[in-house]
C-alpha cells in the first residue's frame, strides 16, 4: 500500500500532505497531553510492531503482494493519535532508508496508513466497546479489535485506490497517455480492494488480535484503556516489558518469511516494470512520462536489500535497523524539553 | 626519645612579607601529642610543611630521630622514602592529595611507592577501607567525593604508610559530627599505639581528649 | 571585641539595579567552567551485569576497526544495525547525549562530501556509507563512554600494558580539568552574586578570574607533587 515516487502528481502529493499536516499537529498535541513520558517512549515499540508487520509480505490474489500495517494495534496500545505518529515515523524511515514509499508521496502514505487506518480502526473498536471495558469483556474486545483493524486497513486501501485512480483523469499528455499512475478508478479500486478485503485485511486482523492479546496478558499497563482511564498499575506489570521486547525480537528473526511472497505489490511497480503490467487485459505498453524523468532518491538499502547479498540477512538487518531507530526516535521524543533546560542550569 | 627537634627556626616565603616563623623551637617526644593552636597566618601550616621536608628553613635546624633533615639529606631517594614513610602529612585541602583514579588506588599509592609487595599493599588497603568505612566508595573517583569523604580518603591514604609521626592540618574541618567523633576516637587509638601526633586544629578540647600539649602560635 | 555594624548596614536599602552589560562574557565563561566541571569522570553508569571494562574497550576498538575497514554494504549496515540496537536499549537521556555528537560528526562529513556528490551524483551511495560509518563510530564511542567509568578505562589500559606514566597523565589531566572547572564556575558565580551595581571593571574581573584559575592551576600542580612526595614518590615513574 506504499505509494511509490511519481505515481501521484506533485500537485496530488501537495494536497495529501496538506491534509496530513493538521492531523499530525493534532496528534502531537493530544499525545503530549494524554500520554505520560515513559509511554511516549514506548510508542517506539508499537511503531516497531507496525514496521515489522509491514515487512511480512503475503501473496495476494492476482500475483501481487500485500502486508499488514499494524496501525490499529498501536491505537489499541497507545491511542489513535500515538498510532498516527508511530506509523508516520515508520513510514518516514521506510521512505528515507529503504525506498519503500516515495518521499514526495510521504504525505499521501501517511494520510492513508497513519491517519485513516488507525482512526477508522480505533473508531470502530470504540463503537463496539461502548459502555464496557476490555477487562470486563475480553472476548468482545478481541472481536472488536479484529473488526476494527479489518475495516481500518480496508478503508486505507480504498483511499489509496482513489488516489491512484484519479491520476489518469487529471494528468495525461496530448496523446491520452497518463503522466503518472496509468490506471483509473474502475481498475484501481477493485485491484486494491479485493486482495485487501480477502487476504491482507484478514492478516491485519489476525496480527492485531494476536499481538494485542499478548501485550494485554504480559504488560497490561501498556494498553490505551489503562493509560486513558489512569488505571492503577498492577505491580507485576512493571517488570513486564521483557516479553514485549522478546516478541519484537521473535518478529525480527521471522521477517525472512516475508520474502516468501514473490511479486510486487499492486501499484508499487518500478518504472522498469510498469510497461509490462497488464491490468486492462493487454500490456500497458508505455512508461508514464512522469515516472521516467521523475524525482528519485538513492537510499541506503533500496527495497530492504544490499546488492547481491543474501536477501534474508539483509532483510533481518533492515528489520533490526528500523526497529532500533524507531525505539531511539520515540525515546528521544519522550525527553521533556523543559526538564532538559533545568538539568543544564543546575 | 626525642623524635622531633626544631631549633631556632627562621622561615620566610618572601623577603617583603617578612618571616612566618622566627626563633621557633620545638621538641616532641615519641608518642606525644602536640596540638598547634593559633589564628590564621600564625605559621601552623608552614611548620607542618617544614616537619615534612616540603619547605626548608632559612636559619635554624630540624632533626628527625636525630638525623638532620635538609635538602641534601632528602636528595637521596632511599633516605627520602624512609623519611616520608615515617612522617605522614594530611594536607589542609584534601583535594591536593587526591590524584588517583579510584579510592582504592588512592590508598594504595603510598604502599606501592614504598615498594611493598602487592599482596601486602592490597591487605593494607582492604583493612583501611573497612576501618574508615569507605567500602561503598572504593571504585569512585576521589575528587568527585563530598568534602568529608575526601578528608577521610586522604587520611586513609596517609595511614596506609603506617607512619610513626602523623602531622595533620585541620583534620576536623569539613567533618560532620558523627565522623568527627569517630576521628577523635581513631586519633586516641593512634596515640595509644605509641604514634606521635602533631595536629593543627581549632578545637579547644583536643589537647584534653588526647592528653597532649598545646602550643600557641602567634603571627609575627 | 564586640562587632559594631556600620551605620549603612543598620537600615534596609531600596536597591534598583542600573542596566549593565557584559552578560555575554559571564555566560560564556560560566558555561565553559560548567562543561569542565561536568566532565564527570565517573558519569558512565555501569549496569549490574556490565561487561568488564577491558572487554568493552576491546569490543569498541574492534567495532571501529571493522567499521572503517568494511567495504560492502552488508557489513556496514549489519554493524550499524548492531550498534543501533545497543543504543536503543539505553535510557532516553543517554541516547541523546550519545547521538548529538554523532549526528554533528555525520553532518560535518555530509557537508564535506556534498561538493563531490553534487559534481557526480553516482557517488551518493558511497558517500552515504561513509556518513553512516562516521555516525556509527562516534556513536560507539559515545555508548562506551556512557556505559563505562573512565577510571575503569584507565584500569583497562593498564591491562593492555600501557605504561603507568601515560595512564597517570591521563588521570591527572582529567583531575585538573574537573577541579579547575569547578573553581572557575564557583568564582564566576561569586562574582555575579556580588556585582549588583553597574560595574565598569567587569571585564577586568573576568580577566582576573582567568588569571586566578591559571595561577591556581600551577599551584595545584605544585601541591600535588608535594603530596606525592609525602607518600614516597621519588620521581620514579616505574611504580605508578
Please tag this protein with its features.
heterotrimer; A: 346 residues; mainly alpha; Arp2/3 complex 21 kDa subunit ARPC3; two-stranded antiparallel ribbon; 13 helices; 1% strand; globular; disordered C terminus; C: 240 residues; 71% helix
Summarize the structure.
Chain A is mostly helical and 346 residues long.
Please write out the topology.
The complex is a heterotrimer of chains A (346), B (220) and C (240).
Chain A: H1 10-34, H2 37-55, E1 58-59, E2 65-66, H3 71-78, H4 80-98, H5 106-129, H6 138-170, H7 185-218, H8 224-228, H9 235-238, H10 241-254, H11 289-292, H12 311-333, H13 337-345
Antiparallel strand pairs in A: 1-2
Helix pairs in contact in A: 1-4, 1-5, 2-3, 2-4, 2-10, 2-12, 3-4, 3-5, 3-6, 3-7, 4-5, 4-12, 5-6, 6-7, 10-12
Chain B: E1 2-11, E2 21-29, E3 33-37, H1 44-51, E4 59-64, E5 67-68, H2 71-75, H3 77-86, E6 87-90, H4 94-97, H5 103-113, H6 118-131, H7 147-159, E7 165-169, H8 177-192, E8 196-200, H9 206-209, E9 213-216
Parallel strand pairs in B: 3-8, 3-9, 6-7, 7-8
Antiparallel strand pairs in B: 1-2, 1-4, 4-5
Chain C: H1 23-38, H2 53-69, H3 73-88, H4 92-119, H5 124-147, H6 150-159, H7 164-194, H8 202-230
Structure in words:
The complex is a heterotrimer of chains A (346), B (220) and C (240). With 346 residues, chain A is an all-alpha fold. Chain A has a single domain, classed as Orthogonal Bundle (Arp2/3 complex 21 kDa subunit ARPC3), CATH 1.10.1760. Chain A contains 13 helices and two strands; from the N terminus they run ααββααααααααααα. Chain A has a two-stranded antiparallel sheet with strand order 1-2. In chain A, helix 3 crosses helix 5. The longest helix of chain A has 34 residues. Chain B has a domain of 152 residues: Rossmann fold, CATH 3.40.50.300. Chain B is built from nine helices and nine strands. In chain B, the strands form two sheets. Chain B has a five-stranded parallel sheet with strand order 6-7-8-3-9, with helices on both faces. In chain B, strand 4 and strand 5 form a beta hairpin. The model of chain B has no long low-confidence stretch (mean pLDDT 90). Chain C has 240 residues and is mainly alpha-helical. Chain C has two domains: 98 residues, no CATH class; 78 residues, no CATH class. Chain C contains eight helices and no strands. The model of chain C has no long low-confidence stretch (mean pLDDT 80). At the A-C interface, helix 12 of A face helix 3, helix 4 and helix 5 of C.
Amino acid at each position: 500500500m506504499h505509494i511509490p515516487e511519481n505515481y501521484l502528481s506533485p500537485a496530488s502529493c501537495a494536497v495529501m500532505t496538506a491534509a496530513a499536516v493538521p492531523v499530525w499537529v493534532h496528534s502531537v498535541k493530544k499525545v503530549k497531553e494524554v500520554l505520560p513520558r515513559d509511554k511516549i517512549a514506548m510508542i517506539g515499540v508499537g511503531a516497531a510492531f507496525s514496521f515489522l508487520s509491514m515487512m511480512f509480505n503475503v501473496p495476494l490474489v492476482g500475483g501481487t503482494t500485500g502486508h499488514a500495517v499494524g496501525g490499529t494495534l498501536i491505537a489499541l496500545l497507545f491511542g489513535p493519535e500515538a498510532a498516527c505518529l508511530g506509523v508516520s515515523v515508520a513510514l518516514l524511515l521506510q521512505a528515507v532508508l529503504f525506498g519503500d514509499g516515495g518521499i514526495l508521496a510521504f504525505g499521501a502514505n501517511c494520510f492513508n496508513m497513519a491517519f485513516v487506518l488507525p482512526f477508522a480502526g480505533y473508531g470502530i473498536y470504540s463503537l463496539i466497546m461502548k459502555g464496557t471495558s476490555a477487562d470486563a469483556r475480553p472476548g468482545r474486545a478481541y472481536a472488536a479489535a479484529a473488526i476494527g483493524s479489518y475495516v481500518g486497513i480496508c478503508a486505507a486501501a480504498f483511499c489509496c485506490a482513489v488516489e491512484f485512480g484519479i491520476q489518469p483523469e487529471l494528468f495525461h499528455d496530448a496523446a491520452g497517455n497518463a503522466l503518472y499512475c496509468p490506471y483509473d478508478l474502475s481498475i484501481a479500486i477493485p485491484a486494491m480492494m479485493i486482495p485487501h478485503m480477502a487476504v491482507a485485511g484478514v492478516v491485519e486482523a489476525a496480527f492485531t488480535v494476536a499481538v494485542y492479546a499478548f501485550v494485554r496478558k504480559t504488560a497490561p499497563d501498556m494498553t490505551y484503556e489503562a493509560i486513558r482511564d489512569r488505571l492503577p498499575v498492577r505491580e507485576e506489570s512493571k517488570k513486564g516489558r521483557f516479553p514485549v521486547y522478546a516478541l519484537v525480537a521473535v518478529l525480527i528473526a521471522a521477517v525472512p518469511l516475508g520474502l516468501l511472497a514473490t511479486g510486487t505489490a499492486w501499484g508499487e511497480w518500478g518504472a522498469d516494470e510498469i510497461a509490462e503490467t497488464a491490468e486492462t487485459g493487454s500490456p500497458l505498453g508505455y512508461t508514464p512520462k512522469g515516472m521516467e524523468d521523475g524525482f528519485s532518491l538513492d537510499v541506503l538499502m533500496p527495497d530492504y536489500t544490499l546488492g547481491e547479498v543474501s536477501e534474508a540477512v539483509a532483510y533481518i538487518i533492515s528489520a533490526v535497523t528500523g526497529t532500533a531507530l524507531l525505539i531511539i526516535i520515540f525515546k528521544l521524543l519522550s525527553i521533556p524539553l523543559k526538564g532538559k533546560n533545568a538539568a543544564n542550569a543546575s | 626519645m626525642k623524635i622531633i627537634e626544631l631549633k631556632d627556626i627562621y622561615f620566610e616565603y618572601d623577603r617583603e612579607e617578612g618571616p612566618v616563623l622566627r626563633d621557633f623551637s620545638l621538641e616532641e617526644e615519641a608518642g606525644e601529642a602536640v596540638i598547634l593552636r593559633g589564628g590564621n597566618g600564625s605559621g601552623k601550616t608552614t611548620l607542618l610543611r617544614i616537619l615534612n621536608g616540603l619547605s626548608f628553613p632559612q636559619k635554624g635546624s630540624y632533626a628527625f630521630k636525630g638525623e638532620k633533615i635538609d635538602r641534601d639529606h632528602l636528595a637521596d631517594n632511599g633516605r627520602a622514602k624512609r623519611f616520608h614513610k615515617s612522617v605522614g602529612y594530611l594536607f589542609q585541602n584534601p583535594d591536593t592529595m587526591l590524584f588517583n583514579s579510584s579510592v582504592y588506588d588512592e590508598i594504595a599509592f603510598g604502599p606501592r611507592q614504598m615498594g611493598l609487595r602487592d599482596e601486602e599493599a592490597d591487605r593494607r588497603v582492604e583493612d583501611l577501607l573497612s576501618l574508615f568505612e569507605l567500602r561503598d566508595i572504593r571504585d569512585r573517583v576521589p575528587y568527585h567525593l563530598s568534602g568529608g569523604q575526601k578528608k577521610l580518603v586522604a587520611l586513609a591514604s596517609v595511614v596506609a604508610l603506617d607512619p610513626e609521626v602523623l602531622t595533620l592540618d585541620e583534620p576536623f574541618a569539613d567533618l560532620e559530627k558523627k565522623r568527627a567523633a569517630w576521628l577523635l576516637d581513631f586519633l586516641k587509638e593512634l596515640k595509644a599505639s605509641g604514634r606521635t601526633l602533631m595536629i593543627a586544629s581549632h578545637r579547644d578540647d583536643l589537647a584534653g581528649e588526647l592528653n597532649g600539649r598545646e602550643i600557641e602560635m602567634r603571627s609575627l | 571585641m564586640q562587632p559594631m555594624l556600620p551605620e549603612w548596614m543598620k537600615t534596609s536599602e531600596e536597591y534598583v539595579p542600573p542596566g549593565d552589560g557584559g552578560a555575554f562574557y559571564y555566560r560564556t565563561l560560566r558555561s565553559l567552567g560548567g562543561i569542565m566541571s561536568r566532565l564527570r569522570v565517573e558519569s558512565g553508569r555501569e549496569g549490574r551485569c556490565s561487561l568488564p571494562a577491558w572487554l568493552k574497550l576491546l569490543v569498541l576498538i574492534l567495532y571501529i576497526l571493522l567499521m572503517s575497514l568494511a567495504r560492502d554494504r552488508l557489513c556496514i549496515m549489519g554493524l550499524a544495525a548492531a550498534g543501533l540496537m545497543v543504543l536503543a536499549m539505553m535510557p532516553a537521556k543517554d541516547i541523546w547525549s550519545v547521538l548529538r555528537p554523532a549526528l554533528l560528526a555525520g553532518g560535518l562529513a555530509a557537508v564535506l562530501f556534498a561538493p563531490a556528490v553534487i559534481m557526480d551524483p553516482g557517488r551518493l551511495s558511497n558517500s552515504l556509507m561513509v556518513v553512516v560509518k562516521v555516525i556509527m563510530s562516534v556513536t560507539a564511542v559515545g555508548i562506551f563512554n556512557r556505559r563505562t567509568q573512565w577510571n575503569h578505562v584507565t584500569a583497562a589500559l593498564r591491562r593492555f600494558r600501557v605504561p603507568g606514566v601515560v595512564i597517570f597523565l591521563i588521570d591527572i589531566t582529567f583531575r585538573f580539568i574537573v577541579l579547575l572547572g569547578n573553581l572557575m564556575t564557583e568564582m564566576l558565580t561569586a562574582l555575579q552574586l556580588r556585582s549588583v551595581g553597574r560595574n565598569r571593571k567587569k571585564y577586568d574581573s573576568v580577566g582576573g578570574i582567568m588569571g586566578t584559575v591559571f595561577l591556581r592551576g600551577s599551584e595545584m600542580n605544585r601541591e600535588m607533587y608535594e603530596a606525592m612526595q609525602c607518600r614516597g614518590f621519588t620521581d620514579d615513574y616505574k611504580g605508578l
